[in-house]
Acetyltransferase
Amino acid sequence: MSTVGLWVIGAGGHAKVVLEACRAAALPVAGVFDDDPAAAGRDLLGFSVAGAVPPPVRWRAERKRGILAVGSNRAREALATRLAGVDWATVVHPSAVVAPDVVLGPGVFVAPRVVINPGAVIGAHVILNTGAIVEHDCRIGDFTHVAPGSVLTGNVTLGRRVLFGAGAVAIPGVSVADDTVCGAGAVLTADVSSAGIVVGVPARAPR
């Protein structure tokens, strides 16, 4: 039996963006789920939130694929671990520009007007948010979120669970450690070798 429709996990603001991208890309959504009891029955762009996230056995029985529409990097990782064995979809908005040789991991979300240039490798469950630019030969680790309007110039490496803030820029060749938070508008001109928060121009840890 073939898979029919996606299950979208999450009922917050980011889930709205994902649902709209699914509509634009003509990807059928079969259900929306969220573990928050208060979300059950909530209308989300015409979808009624069906309740708690189904266990993996139900995903397999109903041959469903899914996307984790949750903004928190750690929450996406926890859900992916809990739902091991689920078939994850990659959702790409039709307005995005993705070079043919780009590698997109399972569960990646590519929002409107994102540009991903040749040689880029994007890990599992990464969010590339509205208008982000990922230049040639970048590497982005699992569960990272590249926020709206940010720019990764050539050969940039982001580790796992990085939050690369709105409007932030990394110059060519910069490497960013796992679990780093790059503040909105930060300009990274040097490697970030350990987890923490960096802000400003040039970006550095706040004092």
